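Recall the central idea of this unit: under ordinary conditions, the amino acid sequence of a chain determines the structure it adopts. In this exercise we apply that idea directly, starting from the sequence alone.
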Amino acid sequence: MTSIYHKSVLLNECLEGLLIRPSGIYVDVTFGGGGHTRAILDRLNENGRVIAFDQDEDALQNVPDDKRFTLVGQNFRFLKNFLRLHGAIPVHGILADLGISSHQIDRPDRGFSTRFDGPLDMRMNRNATTTAADVLNTYEPYQLKKIFSLYGEVENAGRLTQLIVNARNDQPILTIAELKEAIAGCLPRGKEFRYLAQVFQALRIEINAEMKALEELLKQSVEVLAPGGRLVVISYHSLEDRMVKNFMRSGNIEGKEEKDFYGNLIRPLEPVNRKAIVPTDEEIELNSRARSAKLRIAEKSRIAE
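Accordingly, the structure predicted from this sequence is:
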């Protein structure tokens, strides 16, 4: 079936980073439209496998008719459990294209975009119970301020929170238009779109527990990768990229380095690229989602024969 999602970002760079072996087992933890998965399948022989994860039921519309493919309809934070269930440990490569898809953004009913009016939803898994409206209307002020400051890096998080609390005291904030109206007083002139994007990012990360899920994915990737296996991650904002960079360089999300007696870094992964790979101007022109993309690649340390 034709993909209803975005064009895959940094596709060739991801495939090169995975160092695909024809009979290998690979994991696409963010299946989406299946662009990366199909490209991997094209490089595998009949013995190769791809296990993909996606918690959004819309992704079912993009499943390829291929016996080498398995889709797990779950969050990638359950990576190890489901790979074990499908007899797919160890794997030779893991690909994560983080963030949200243009398909999700372009659906007003999903509530991810500031461009439309619609319900304040933002759930990637629509079976989840907590929506953006729930957060805005039930969280204590200190909780709202914390998520806007931490996940959205909003400078005037206190003022933003106060406007939200004032508005919800009159009536619940249930739609994107109502949220925009409530916080209009703290939007910086000329930077309204960027500010709203930060607010929406903070809510989305909180509702979907994105940072915790990413932390669990990174830790489990070390446990399921074969020696010499590759971890390839595309991130789209500084919080994700910082966590990925720290883990690949030091083995922990805090970036704390540990060294052995000889001064060598003790870490389970070896970074392949010292600097993040970014899209070309040509790719950005064709795919606006690529504008903020950063690709990092690491290899699991090999066990001496």
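The chain has two domains: 11-102+210-300, 108-208.
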